[in-house]
Amino acid sequence: MSLLITDECINCDVCVPECPNEAIYMGEEIYEIDGDLCTECVGHFDTPQCVEVCPVDCCLPDPDRVETDEELLAKIKD
Ligand code: SF4
Ligand code: SF4
Prior knowledge:
CATH topology: Alpha-Beta Plaits
Number of strands: 4
Number of domains: 1
Number of helices: 2
CATH class: Alpha Beta
CATH architecture: 2-Layer Sandwich
Bound molecules: iron/sulfur cluster
Strand content: 15-25%
Shape: globular
Distance between the termini: 20 Å
Largest sheet: 2 strands, antiparallel
Structural class: alpha+beta
Order of helices and strands: EEEHEH
């Protein structure tokens, strides 16, 4: 399941360098997560790193992007 960033994001930038898949980018107003790149950190870390570092806890699972571990791993770039 990919993650998404809610509108509670304060644009602090902290999560951007922590993402192993470069899935976090600046959107029109707040940071956003590219669901085609986010693997929930599967294959890199035991826990989603954006969730770990976000000071306002606005990185949440996206209920519209339910994926298996196999599907998540397939998204990792070589
Ligand atoms: S869960 Fe991991 S891969 Fe997905 S956006 Fe957060 S840091 Fe990046
Ligand atoms: S760490 Fe949280 S508040 Fe900061 S830019 Fe990332 S999503 Fe937004």
